[in-house]
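Blackboard transcription, Thursday session:
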Amino acid sequence: MLFDSLSFFIFLPIVFVLYWFLFNKQLLLQNSFLLLTSYLFYSLWDWRFLFLILSSTILDFFVGQRIYSSDSIQLKKRWLWVSILFNLGLLGFFKYYNFFIDSWVDFVSVFGYELKSAWTLQIILPVGISFYTFQTMSYSLDIYYKRITPSRNFISFATFVSFFPQLVAGPIERASNLLSQITAKRTFNYKQCTEGLKLILWGLFKKVVIADSIAPIVDDIFANYSTYPASTLILGVSLFSFQVYGDFSGYSDIAIGTSKLFGIELMSNFKFPNFSRNVTEYWQRWHISLSTWFRHYVYIPLGGSRVNKLKSVRNIAIIFLVSGFWHGANWTFIAWGAIHAILYIPVFLMEKNRIYMNTVVAENSWFPSIKEVIQIILTFFLITFSRIFFRSESITDAYSFLLQIYSDFRFETYQHPLGYRMIDYFILLIVFILYEFIIRRNERAPFNFKSKTVRFILYTLVILGMLLFYDDSIDRSFIYFQF
Amino acid sequence: MKKLIIKSFLYMSVILLSLEALVRVFYLGKDTPTRFLDEYKVEKWAPNQQGFSVTGNRRQNFSEFKINNSGYNSYREFTPSKNKIEVALVGDSFIEGFHQNYYNSIGKKIENEIPNIEVYEYGYAGYDFADQLHLINAYRDQFDLIDYIVLGIKFSNDLTRSRYNVITDRSALESPFNKLLKKSKLIVYCKSIGILDPPLRLISQVSNLFSPESQSSNSHVNIAIESKKEIEYLKNFKKLVSLYGFDKSKYILILDSNVTNPIFLNYLDTNGYQYIDFFPSFTSTKKPTTLIYDKHWNNYGRTIIAKEISKFLKSKLIDIK
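(Written on the board underneath:)
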């Protein structure tokens, strides 16, 4: 059930009304209802994979208690490994099994051994597995590091693991934030609900108008890159940057907005990354729930930046490579991670990785300075370059794409594959960038204007935009569902 | 909670009204002329209407239509007489041409190609072969004065019945409820861009659940049905021709041989039916011949059609002279 589908727009109001009218009396009722709803939501994708979520839930529920009650560190560690191995095992089998087999076959063929890839299996990737396995692992890790105490209530814990708004593509929540809200009875809050509805509206705009309308152009350019000149390829990868941002941040906004309707606050996942002034700021603004996960559970345990420079650089390289690999079982994602490590490390070595923390571009002015504009464009260019690898089917494709830019370096007007006016999309993106710049200070309040009239006009224009760019014929699934 | 529901409802109502206004201001929704069933049970547009046809979310195609006194979209009135050369184009929406400005139609293009002739376009969306022959038969006194009649035919669509009768589904579009819906330009616009398709599909699926007949299909049965249908279509053609009459010397079919059954083409060839095949001209060009969002011919496609008809007519008009 996609967030921008009709079925979700029938599902959500029904669940919302039942939740606040019928199941509002007790915490147990609230959580039981949310759990059943979440399982129903997930089973509409593929009911068979419910058993995976359930097994991960049961295991981590008991392992969490064992970690907590064990006296010795060694025993705690053993139980922690049970959780990690089980969750990574699930992930490894369903997501990476074929990749490892194929990579091994390719590797031995370098030495002249011809192996048939007979061990590869027809495995369907369960939706959201990368997200919920990381979420349950964080629970066990937090108990191990004594950040939280284990839940004694299975219903609450299961609701934490499978909470439907963020089940299939995050934000990847930590128990300290989400579980603590789930274990407390929620009361209806009008303001929170209206904020949620506004976020849902803005998320839908980003998904339907920005991501989906650009998708056919990007698909066409990446599918036929060998026939296009450099100008078209640069246009294609730049548009992909907006597509993936609109798609994923749109999804996150809908998830956060939907959670608000049920009285639950999820963490922010995007903070206008397109206005980042360097790559380190970008990583403070892009897919925040994943980058904080890696920081807390990989980077800091490895020593973070408290060790010597060389080890810190190693730690940064590790988290970017792992982060790349998390995105998918393909060398393209590892290359993408490696590029980000290469871009990040110099900024880190110059000790400029924290200079833009908790600030925003044009902090105290209406317009950015020329320096900031140059920084933003440069950062966007570097990030977009890395996305050639992110979007390509293989390393060979990414290399050929780059080679085509170099060898056919000329400008040519691009025609939309379906014959639509390209100018519509350029105007749309300019308006979108300008609007995001105006609202850049608060990612959770996209319509934060004092005047009711202005707000009303904006709601109307956003819906009109969706009508103007709606296309029933395109694939509407979210990009990050494949991860 | 009550406050949220009431305010959401109020906001949605005002937003819908604003959207209705915006759709009207930017002319995003098309005008739909009124249908009309005349004394001979011929379905056509109510005479003397004017408006704009819009295609695509962002007005990708915007054209003006004008329904003449005879109830068809044309820049001219139909006044056939013995002392002029007239050609009638009879067909469905492709001839009707709401997707073009009425003063730049196929008929107008033919008139530009061949001076001193008048082209009358009897086009109406959904007209099949039965509709076309019934129209000619009903207005025989007028069509007898016309020198050549070109009939658009698509084998898979236009020969599904062997006798003309009024299509109630199309007449139902003029029901008070549908007329009321059409008053909202927002609804017309949403319907045209397909945003109402998912809810309509859902309603249809739900209603099918309660329907006792569930359709099953397999490929063997489908092939058998298709081949049976083709034989039936040919039979329908023969029946219609014998029922309403078909003057082989002045009736000309226009078709796309690529989507026409060879058995039918063979029948036309062996029985002396004249036809214009526009498939070779459409395939020999690299430029698109249809509109965006729409399968109808674009200006270039219409020019090709007009040239094909003109070429054919020119050869015939030499005979007349």
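Lecturer's comment: DSSP finds 18 helices and no strands in chain A.
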